[in-house]
Amino acid sequence: TVSVITISERGQMAAATSTNGAAHKVPGRVGDGPIVGSGSYVDGEVGGCGATGDGDLMMRFLPCYQAVENMRRGMSPSIAAEDAVRRMLRRFPLIQAGLVVVDKNGNFGAAASNWVFTYSWRSGSMSNPEVVTVQPI
Amino acid sequence: CATLPFVINTWGGPFTVTTDAAFVALKSSATALDAAEAGASACEVSQCDGTVGYGGSPDERCETTLDALIMDGTTMNAGAVAGLRRVKNAIGVARRVLEDTQHTLLVGDHATAFALEKGFLEVDLATDESRSICYAWKENNCQPNFRVGFGSESCPSIESYTPDFPPIKHNTPIITHSFPQSHD
Fold this sequence. Notes:
The structure holds 2 protein chains of 2 kinds.
Chain A: E1 2-7, E2 13-19, E3 40-43, E4 47-53, H1 55-58, H2 63-72, H3 77-91, E5 97-103, E6 108-113, E7 117-123, E8 130-134
Chain B: E1 6-10, H1 16-27, H2 32-46, E2 66-72, E3 78-84, H3 90-100, E4 105-107, H4 108-117, H5 128-139
Parallel strand pairs in B: 3-4
Antiparallel strand pairs in B: 2-3
Helix pairs in contact in B: 1-2, 2-3
């Protein structure tokens, strides 16, 4: 799954997710990718979030909506992401999840559970993306 | 903290095609929405690590279906497709749902019908690689699977999906992936 968040030069924000889901799924199964608030979520007044992981479980928690609302209430992107992942971990200790979170000013962070997660970012005058590794909580 | 424009996306490695495509779009004054679509689309075309786009994650009947979502942070408008069949550019169809309807999510064959109405091409999303992954899975008694209490005796009864139109021979190079554990 790819989830991406963009901020334009004028500060507009958008988010997108695309996936072909889980292998060997029961035909008709849909994961969390296309679910607003789970695959990704963005509110230009606050920030955005993109996710990947065990979609069957994640869509029950809407982690990206949670992360954005966490930022609305003052958390930093990293703390907001970690809180959203911890909420899922508490009920499903083996859940594999990865979240990237950015606020409207370009401050960003990430959190993951039960796998080593990576994310890519690029901004301003960077000529190449930077890939960051995130250790699981 | 980063200066604008700004892009962040899940995963590194092959997924940096998304970062670059979205960033290049932003640098050429595309809107955030166009850039997000461009980024996701780049991953659909290149398949990234096999979990995005055609030819990946075959279901029990060896069919690949696609899910996509796009959201505008300024208007909070969103468009999504789930279980999209036989159309490659899932994020493009999701964008059309956002722009051309008041809905948020279209699913399955009806999402495909909407896509065809919008001029998207109908193709077989399975590839030789995804089919061989699926057949190998069946050879392995359909393990692992998402069923509860699924006895291996039920495995052979899962017949394969055959597209109801002649598969188009892909001339794109077959990218061999080692698929990670099954997730979204």
